[in-house]
Amino acid sequence: MSEMWARFVSFARIVGTQSRRGAAVVSRSRARAQDLVEYGVAIAVVAVVVLVAMEALGTGIAGVFTRLLTHFAGLG
Q1: Reported confidence tier of residue 46, pLDDT bands at 50, 70, 90
Q2: I need a surface site. Which of 37, 43, 54, 74 has the fewest CB within 10 A?
Q3: CB-hemisphere CA count at 13 Å for 67?
Q4: End-to-end CA distance of the chain
């Protein structure tokens, strides 16, 4: 009976180790997924800031180019 019990204990340890490894893999994949979501949100925020800046500065930049073109047209 003790040999059977020893085998059972050994099997239980192996199963317990495997389940902890599986839990660690799931934990790592969740952390990676969370990192990807955070990077995606950061990229979206940067894109919105760039679009707002382009919209705000767009007319000013267009005015600079218009003045330059007018100046160069007067030289020719």
Answers
A1: very high
A2: 74
A3: 6
A4: 107
- pLDDT at residue 20, as a whole number: 65
* Structural tokens at position 76: 């020719």
3-class secondary structure, 76: coil
Q: Is the pLDDT of residue 15 over 70?
A: no
Residues found in the chain = 76
Alpha-carbon Rg of the chain, whole angstroms? 32
Q: CB under 8 Å to 34, separation ≥6 — which residues?
A: none
Q: Could you tell me the two tokens for 16?
A: 């317990």
Any idea which residue has 């969740």 for tokens?
Answer: 30
